[in-house]
Structure prediction request, 309 residues.
Amino acid sequence: MKHLLNRRSFLKTAGGLTLGAGLAGWPFAALAAPDMVKITVLHTNDVHSRLDPFPMDGGKRQGLGGVAKRAALIKKIRQAEPHVLLFDCGDIFQGTPYFNFFGGEPEIKLMSLMQYDAATLGNHDFDAGLDGLIKQLPHAQFPFINCNYNFSDTPLNGKTKPYTIFNIDKIKIGVTGVGIELKGLVPGNLYGDTQYLDPITQVNEIARILKEEEKCDFIICLSHLGYEYKSDKISDKVLAENSYHIDLILGGHTHTFMEQPDSTVKNKNGHPVIINQAGWAGIMLGRLDIYFEKSKKKNCVTCKNQFIR
Prediction:
């Protein structure tokens, strides 16, 4: 059984929250067993060009965030953990003079220095137009992943990927990405002939490929749809309940600070999907530790979202 149980299966631990598959048979000491593989997934979203910490002005976010402290925290985690994946869920650009003056170059260069493994696109990543985005891509030492924007008739054609796969100690992690509808959020001249495709249909097809053809053990979706809405607009929760093979959705767009991930939504197969989001402005680093039993490919997940101070 590779899927995760519902909220009643949550166990609070000193490090955060644990979600597990059959936790009665998973004593915590077993998580360090030789036949276990631990993969640490770190993620950010909606950083919005905030490279510096919030100013010490008495505000509730004073001193939080900043690239230097984020890089130091990521480095510390990498030194402590054997397998780390680092993702961003969009809206890298826009929000400070760094973007106004440099068009996104320092943001992408710093992400490359921090060794991000992949990112998806948010609506604000089109704020300098397609040409402005393309200009920054050579600085990215990681792929941009999206499966529901059709760039065939744009200069961005062939410069993004619908998915990527990470092979870690005989465990295959498949990663896809999905973006929000740009019409109404971004001026049409900035995204040009980009075609928005139904995210549910596209994610399900890519997840099917990752599961059935690529034989992935765990599938992650990097989303810039937003966590949830009062309307029927497609959100991470709507995507989760209409999905088949997605195990984890890492979200963005709604700037949602999550103290613990949501796994209350069940997919079309009746299995819970974990949803996590790490606020905005780079003041939180999302973290999930996924433990795989190599022989049976079971997994359990612990969450340790952390403010960057």
User: Anything to note?
Assistant: The chain has one domain: 7-20+34-55+62-307.
